[in-house]
Amino acid sequence: MEKAGQVTIFIIIAVVLIAGVVAFFVLREGIDSEKTLSLEGMEVKIYVESCIEDNFLEVLDIVSLQGGYYGIPDKSIEYTLKDSNISVVVPYYYNNRKLSYPSVEMIEEEISLAMIFLSKLCTNVSEFDFLVKIDEGRISAQTTISKRSVSLLMRIPILVSVGESSEIFDKFELSASSHLSEFYFAALEISENSINEEICLNCISDILGANNMFLESTEIEREDSVEIVYYLVDKETNNAFSFANKFFLENEIE
Amino acid sequence: MNKKFIFILFGVFFISSFVFAMGEAPPDDEVVNHQDELDLDFELSSSGDIDCSYNKKYELAQCNGFGEEGELTSENYHFENVNPDKPSIVKFDKEGNLLSANFVTNDDGAELIIEGEKIEVPPNTRVSIDNTKNEIDMTFSGESEIDSFPDILSGDGETSYIYKIKAEGENTNFKLPSGNYFQEGKLFLKNGVYSIPKGSKTVIDNFRIDAESSEVIFGGLESFEGNQVIIEGGGFFAKGEGFSVVQSISEENLFNKKKSITYTPKGGFVRVNKEGDIEGNGNLDILIGNQRFRSINGKVKRRVGRLPDLGESQFNINFKDGENGESISQIVLDKNHEYSISKLVDRKTEEVKGEDWKAKAYNLMEKHYNKYRGGLDSYDFERVSLPEPVRISKSELGDIYSDYHKRVGGDDAEYEGQIIGRKWARTIGYSEVSNYPNKWWWESLENSDKRISSGDNYKDSAAIVYDELFSSVKSRNPGMDDDAIKIFISRELGRNYINPKNNRGFLREYIRRFETKGEISDNSLLTADKMYHVIDGAGTSAVSGVMTSVAGGVAWEFAEIFREGEGISLGDLKADVFGAFY
């Protein structure tokens, strides 16, 4: 009776071990599936990945330059870069006596949407002399903003068929060095210090010093308000992050 | 015998010559009464080698050429310790009033008496008095100091003397009675109020005060010790702790009202307000135009308001924080109302490295726009051979050709159009594929020959073009300078665009603004004439406010209505356009 029990335990252990080994190889195959891509698959993957990477870096710069947006935010000011006919859209981080900045999640979503939108530029696979199909309807992206970096996980289902063999892959992971997070929180802090229609000047100075940034700004007078467009600039990279604060002048000082 | 006679004769001659010489030139310490000598109507005496004379024609007494230890005294004046190697002159009128004086003190300095008041003058100081202007100029060089200014010049007396002191040469440190060092430039004192004349750059305690565009006036330098706030370049200047500053900016275009500054003794920042009250709370409060700068508990804050007219000058505000003044922040406001805030201590490291950030941003956005130009699947404009537009209107942006449209193809969603004269126009649209609401780019329309292929996109692009056109482009985009624009947009597109789900906030904001002012009501009739006015004018009327806020579709709808000789009331507009969303 005791022996029978021991045998049962050994059998269970053996089954678990075998299942584990099998699972390991199965999963490893899945995880390492890209390593097992054919030359053609690798060619397509490299092409798409390179294109995505280019887009990603550009999107990060644009999102930074436009205060966390790739597109046009609902409440924004369009401002022409000095001495040029190029303009950027600058979102209000403080408007109508309320803070109105996007959340980190919103910026991540913005980057993800931009990457999905731009993925069209990376899916022109007609040049390949073998069959490549991309399921554009199932393209997805997930962005994570971290301190000093932004990472992207894109899913672009791609089918590569050469002769009778086919392979499918979809995973593209990228990470880029970026001060987006630092910019964002500096902009937040500056805006939060601007409530009550006041700008805390030495707070700004401290924020800039702590982040190795400098700040340029332009003020635009309206009939009933003053809008200040800020450009935070990283001293090392010269990348910029813009945001605007709008101050109403109801209680204007006489 | 003969020799003896000659010897005696020589001796007599020698003694008589001596006696004669003694009679001709009195000793240096002998006082000469010029009143008797020159027959003056006032007392004037001198000692030492001074040459005085009276000019009957001009009725003035003049003394010049002060010699070693020369002194000149009258009833209300006394001059002494004049450098004999430098030119010197003192003039009085016939009644003994001082007209002018000009001399340099010697190494001992001098204690003059002017109008009965003692004035301490440091060594080697050029003194220039013009009593016709009530001005006393002193020019200092090198190290010198005085303990006090006479009441006649610095007090609250009835005197109207202006005390003008100048510092010249390197290493000049003139210690003022307040203990501060005046090192360079000009500093005036009148009735206890210090000022720096317009056009001067003055250095006090190593701080440069630039009065280039306007006079800078202080309220005394009694305890000029702190290092808190400096406003220069046409503004006023305060220097925090212990520094009492009162008044004022003389140039109307810079600061249209007199402002006053007083200080609080407990450190912190100077207190500035219109009334000059001492708040005693250790806080800063400066008002410049409608800009209020203040400091509360060490946080320097600026209350946003309309900026002063800075003219051609730059307006610098420097904040030096902390007791030891390690951290100095600077704000630079330029005439374009741009300002930068930086730490002075970091200034060197803030030099642009490599590519300027603006150039970098420009290249980035240009690349961004170019990427989409003609790319993807929409936003194509075609320069087609179209008949002349029905209506040409003038706008601040140039001619507007606004009422022609042509449908192409059989699909209602397809239109073609043309925009000319504007280098860039932004297009915006919704993508059914991605549901990404805000994809956008710029389309070069200058030499465009592209076809609009998507009505939906065209709708929005046109709307944005209208938005650009009718909204206050100049203020939003100061860099833009467009000549003309042609817009062709369909009524159908206009109708589409007035979908209240779209963002109508801009229009609402405008309507409400004019409603609030009582310039527009629900009964206000928007007519074709007003439509023209909208396009012609600079957006000053209520109607223009409405129309300038109209983004494309509504404007087009109006254009259609107006062309038919009708009008629309604001009430109908609100009901039609906004419905429940207004």
Descriptive overview:
The complex is a heterodimer of chains A (254) and B (582). By secondary structure, chain A is α+β, with helices and mostly antiparallel strands. Chain A has 3 domains: 1-36; 37-61 and 108-177; 73-102 and 179-248, no CATH class. Chain A contains 5 helices and 11 strands. Chain A has helices at 2-31, 39-65, 104-118, 180-192, 201-211, and strands spanning 76-80, 87-95, 98-99, 131-134, 140-146, 149-162, 165-177, 198-200, 213-221, 225-234, 240-248. In chain A, a hairpin with a 2-residue loop joins strand 2 (87-95) and strand 3 (98-99). In chain A, helix 4 runs antiparallel to helix 5. Chain A starts with a helix and ends in a 6-residue tail after the last strand. The model of chain A is unreliable at 24-33 (pLDDT under 50). By secondary structure, chain B is α+β, with helices and mostly antiparallel strands. Chain B has a domain at 369-581. Helix content of chain B is 21%, strand content 29%. Chain B is built from 12 helices and 38 strands. In chain B, strands 3, 4, 7, 8, 11, 12, 13, 14, 15, 16, 17, 18, 19 and 20 form a 14-stranded mixed β-sheet that branches. In chain B, helix 5 packs across helix 7, helix 7 (491-497) crosses helix 11 and helix 9 (528-536) packs across helix 10 (542-549). The radius of gyration of chain B is 40 Å and the shape is elongated. In chain B, 41% of the residues are buried. The model of chain B is unreliable at 18-27, 219-290, 308-354, 373-507 and 528-565 (pLDDT under 50). Chains A and B meet through helix 2, strand 1, helix 3, strand 8 and helix 5 of A and strand 26, strand 28, strand 29 and helix 4 of B.
